[in-house]
Amino acid sequence: MLNAYKKIGNAYAVAMGKELLKQGREARSGGLINSLKSIVNGSTISILGNSYWTFVNYGVQKGKINPKAPARIKGLIKWLKYKGIGSSEPIIRGIAYAIAYTHFKKGMPTMNGRLDKSRLNFVDKAIKNSEREISMVIDKEIGYELDLILKKF
């Protein structure tokens, strides 16, 4: 059954990655999409991802973000460098502070400087939008496991 649970968990992780792509998140920047993985413990399946998945899934209300937090600025600088945005350290730092300030004023996630609620709830949307595919994986894997059990009798 362990293998069946792993395949079911992987189907959920793939569905979440696809939903993030539909919402405009980029796979090439690594981050959240590449961090999604399923863990099986007994009969429990958990989908794990980078620790900031809750902010991506639920968003953050305006005013709840400290735009000057060193960890936030450092993360934004790293992301900007990866994207190739900005030509020098001072410019990149300035862009990072501008993004952090926009998040403070508008909330997260934003798109073109505006709060974009369509980019929230990727977990629920993934489960809903891939219900049929995941049900097929469950039926196939559980059916296979039941066949193995019945062949032993």
Low-confidence stretches: none
Instruction: Assign a percent range to the helix content.
Output: 55-70%
The largest pleated sheet is described as: 2 strands, antiparallel
Mean pLDDT equals 89
The spatial strand order of the largest sheet comes to: 1-2
Radius of gyration: 20 Å
- Please tell me what the overall shape is: elongated
Instruction: Sketch the topology as an H/E string, one letter per element.
Output: HHEEHHHEEHH
What is the CA–CA distance across the termini? Answer: 17 Å
How many separate helices? 7
Percent in strands: 5-15%
Could you characterize the architecture of this molecule?
With 153 residues, the protein is mostly helical. It has a two-stranded antiparallel sheet with strand order 1-2. Helix 1 packs antiparallel against helix 7 and helix 4 crosses helix 5. The protein is elongated. The mean pLDDT is 89.
Could you give a short description of this structure?
This protein is 61% helix and 9% strand.
Question: Which features would summarize this protein structure in a list?
Answer:
single chain; 153 residues; two-stranded antiparallel ribbon; 61% helix; elongated
